[in-house]
Amino acid sequence: FYQSFLIVRRDSPHARLEDLRGGSFAFTDPHSNTGKLVPTAWLAELGERPETFFRETIYTYSHDNSILAVARGLVDGAAVDGLVWEYYKEKNPELAARTQVIRKSESYGNPPLVASRFLPPGERQALQNLLFTMHQDPQGQKILAELLIERFVPLEEQWYDGIRRLHERLNPGKEAGHGAQDP
């Protein structure tokens, strides 16, 4: 599971989303749950929209770039994938220390790993078996530890209900997408 983290610079006076009114803000990607959908929903709870709440918004197109933009003072705040921020905290503590988390969302199911529909079924099953058992293998454990992942598990559809509810709240009558249609 993962969360959206609202981050600001460590030395920032901003302690709440409301404090960022009139400031600059980095969204990750227009299609990001944690980097766009969640903070937009937070603003909607305040009766606000990004284009009127913030003086300036940018898209960085990666959670890493959003963290860097805040750490370097290029923007006042950003919404990022909490797992990416935690990875930075572990692997690049000097950079993460230049930021602070001022809000966390509820937990959502991680985006799933998917395979092309053109992958032969035997290869798909072998890949699935490898991923679902790698936590039992010393080499697999080492790889997972480097990624700060405990293990892979089969997904459960209800893990995505929270994201669907946010999407519905912001886009009444429009069904949330269920993934790419092409390989």
UniProtKB/TrEMBL annotation:
It holds the Pfam family Phosphonate-bd. It comes from the Bacteria. This is Phosphate/phosphite/phosphonate ABC transporter substrate-binding protein. It comes from Desulfobacca acetoxidans.
